[in-house]
């Protein structure tokens, strides 16, 4: 007979099995359309996507996303931040930040990372997978 703890264990095992595969979860937002995505990042109710289920942009060959990225654009004093799935790895394979300068007062900081929800705020992203897992287990036990 299946008990609540047995079902919870099976669901948790399935969750970890799929997590340990090639999927990665990233925040997906643009501060031009949602101020919570900006420098004062607020992850509450922002979009989280399973990047392995997303199609890459049309201008690149079909490839699965394996990392998250944050792009901070500073253009003539205006700041825009985009958080999304990443598709093309750096040649070095390292996940770091790099800053590029354009013409005039244009700066772009491009950061990549390869853990779930790592493209959020630094103090949030480290504990988010544990918090989400805890909520899932808690609510599963309530409904079962």
TrEMBL record:
Organism domain of life: Eukaryota
Organism expressing this protein natively: Euphydryas editha
One Gene Ontology biological process: sleep
Glycoprotein listed as a keyword: yes
Principal subcellular localisation of the protein: membrane
Alphabetical keyword list: Glycoprotein, GPI-anchor, Lipoprotein, Membrane, Signal, Transmembrane, Transmembrane helix
PANTHER family according to UniProt: ATILLA, ISOFORM B-RELATED-RELATED, PROTEIN QUIVER
Record membrane topology: Lipid-anchor; GPI-anchor
Name used for this protein in its record: Protein sleepless
Pfam annotation, one family: QVR
Coiled-coil zones: none
Signal peptide: 1-23
Alphabetical list of InterPro entries matching this protein: QVR-like, Sleep_regulator, Snake_toxin-like_sf
GO cellular component: side of membrane
Annotated compartments: Membrane
């Amino acid at each position: 007979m299946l008990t609540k703890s047995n079902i919870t264990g099976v669901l948790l095992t399935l969750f970890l099995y799929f997590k340990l595969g090639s999927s990665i979860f990233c925040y997906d937002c643009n501060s031009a359309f949602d101020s919570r995505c900006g420098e004062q990042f607020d992850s509450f109710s922002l979009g989280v996507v399973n990047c392995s289920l997303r199609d890459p942009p049309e201008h690149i060959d079909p490839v699965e996303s394996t990392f998250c990225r944050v792009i901070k654009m500073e253009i003539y004093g205006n700041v825009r931040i985009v958080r999304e799935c990443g598709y093309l790895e750096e040649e070095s394979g390292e996940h770091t930040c790099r800053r590029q300068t354009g013409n005039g007062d244009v700066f772009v900081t491009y950061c990549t990372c390869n853990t779930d929800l790592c493209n959020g705020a630094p103090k949030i992203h480290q504990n988010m997978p544990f918090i989400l897992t805890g909520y899932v287990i808690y609510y599963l036990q309530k409904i079962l």
